[in-house]
Amino acid sequence: MNGRQRRTISIAFLASLSVASFARPAFADDKADRVAHEFVTALGGEGAWNRARQLRFDFVVEREGKRAAEFHHLWDRYTGDYRLLGADKSGAPYAVYFNVNSRDGTAFVNGRRVEGEEKKKLLENAYGRFINDTYWLLAPWKVFDPGVHRDYDGEKTGPDGVACDVIRLSFDDNVGLTPKDVYWLWVTREGRRMVQWQYVLGGAQEEPTTALWKGWKNVGGISLSLEKTMSGRPIRILFENVAVSTSRDDKDFAAPPAPASPAR
Question: Residue ranges of the domains in the chain?
């Protein structure tokens, strides 16, 4: 994936790891908050989100009908423990076991444990994938995170003529990796379902990019959109093998042991 393609799916995300709080700050936009609260309730509600401890999913980028990239994620939201499986540019498989709070961990390429600069780059890449990929899946559940500002952007007609309330999201400077990004969530007035979002990255002065949010499914008590289609471009982002659990699988977070030192 080249730099331009990577930027297409690079988005701001606040990596809050503990259970969520949906309390409204006093200075918030009341109408935006009302719509957002109704939206979160329709998706399963605060209780279901707080119980969703472990998330497992495959993030797949499809370009012109062909799979261009895929990454396999496992996240313990309570502790921040994370496992990412993928392949590097040469096609070599890698595995990164780390914690999103400390950003420290271990990394393997072709089953070989790596150290030094190679390990550092893999950890940085894995954290970036966590930031990016989880937000494409979980953005509706993150609207009340600290540092996220919600503003009501009006009533507009969405895809297929559906009436929508539009919420504009902006961020404090310490939120995510790209806090100057701006997003607009298009939420249906009937049923409170998000049908698309638009975003402008890095404070750029350009027309927003639009992605349709499709394939909504209830997984472990929370509703998630499992397909995002880029408007006017032959790109889809798919989520496969999605599972949500109230407990964690300890064995899946355990990195392989280091090989024993050769006998002297």
Answer: 27-77+139-246
